[in-house]
Design brief:
single chain; alpha/beta; 9-stranded mixed sheet; 12 helices; 9 strands
Length: about 325
């Protein structure tokens, strides 16, 4: 089994990196929102997260990609809140519906009113390892990179030795990603939308495409193409997800062409078909998205991926959410 990147770094170096990251929370610039609030004082802005991360749930996830879930599941930790405001979010209750820390109890087993302390987050990582999970899969971590590093150092001191999966929307800033250089083994970013107009309308972040392109380039620079072990499990590299959306095939084509051209045609891409109306769309807004993905739309997306030259494509037959 390949040793995780952070074990090569060493515990002392990881602890120094974590201290540096946490200090930066006093003038937080850890995502493209660039809010500059003092999160060490438990203030927050777009991400609704102050000094401590908020964990919504953690468990052995058996619904991830085959190369992550293996036989025992991916050790998934879902962080609450998000720096995007996707109108179609399929995890809306976690990302946008939960009140910020201080207004309710968390679900991390401690009931701490201000979020999940690093010691408890470290315990979660170790519990997932004890359950036989193949990795620690951090979901929506863009706004809690310092808190993750702080907890990871504690977990490593306690014996953690699983690969780290950074499972992100792609709305990351380079300052955060550089803190993760030599720490994260597997980057799993979404690339949601290509144009500023679509991103402004559906993500409430016109700068999303620029941020995502810069982030994916940096992730690929750090870890390269996805590598699998003899058992087919991911151990290192980038896995890009793209959700095909109804009526937005031009966005899909542009994203797939960019991945093949600017990252690598050997990039592992999961072309997902499981769109369904959720979030604000399910509430009756954004009429153009208020339908499932049609079968021919997903098939056209698959053809676009092949035409772009992508050679490692995780593309499935349309699911029950797809319609003719």
């Amino acid at each position: 089994m390949q040793r995780p990147a952070y074990l090569h770094m060493g515990l002392e170096a990881l602890e120094r990196r974590a201290c540096q990251a946490v200090a930066g929370l006093s003038d937080c610039r850890y995502c493209p929102r660039d809010c500059g609030v003092d999160r060490l004082a438990d203030r927050w802005s777009a991400c609704k997260t102050g000094r401590y991360a908020v964990v919504s749930s953690y468990f052995a996830h058996r619904g991830e990609e085959d190369c992550l879930r293996g036989q025992n599941g991916s050790g998934t930790i879902f962080f609450a809140h998000c720096n995007l405001r996707c109108v179609f979010c399929q995890n809306w209750e976690i990302s946008q519906g939960m009140p910020p820390p201080g207004g309710s109890r968390t679900q991390d087993g401690t009931g701490h009113p201000r979020g999940t302390r690093p010691e408890r987050l470290a315990e979660m990582m170790l519990e997932l390892q004890d359950r036989g999970c193949h990795n620690v899969n951090l979901v929506t971590p863009e706004h809690v990179v310092p808190q993750v590093l702080e907890a990871l150092a504690i977990a490593v001191a306690g014996g953690l030795s699983l690969p780290i999966v950074y499972n992100t929307s792609g709305y990351d800033c380079l300052a955060s990603l550089r803190l993760l250089d030599g720490v994260v083994d597997i980057y799993m970013p979404d690339f949601k939308l290509w144009t500023r107009d679509a991103s402004r309308r559906y993500l409430k972040a016109a700068d999303y495409p620029d941020a995502a392109r810069a982030a994916l380039r940096e992730m690929h620079r750090q870890v390269g193409d996805l590598q699998l072990d003899a058992n087919g499990l991911a151990v290192h590299g980038v896995l890009v997800r793209h959700l095909v959306m109804p009526g937005l095939l031009d966005e899909t084509r542009a994203i797939l062409e960019w991945i093949a051209r600017d990252l690598d045609a050997n990039t592992y891409v999961n072309l997902m078909d499981q769109y369904y109306p959720a979030g604000s769309v399910a509430d009756g807004r954004f009429a153009e998205l208020r339908r499932g993905l049609k079968k021919h739309e997903y098939e056209e997306a698959l053809r676009a991926a092949h035409k772009a030259g992508l050679s490692r494509l995780d593309g499935r037959a349309p699911t029950q959410h797809s319609v003719v």
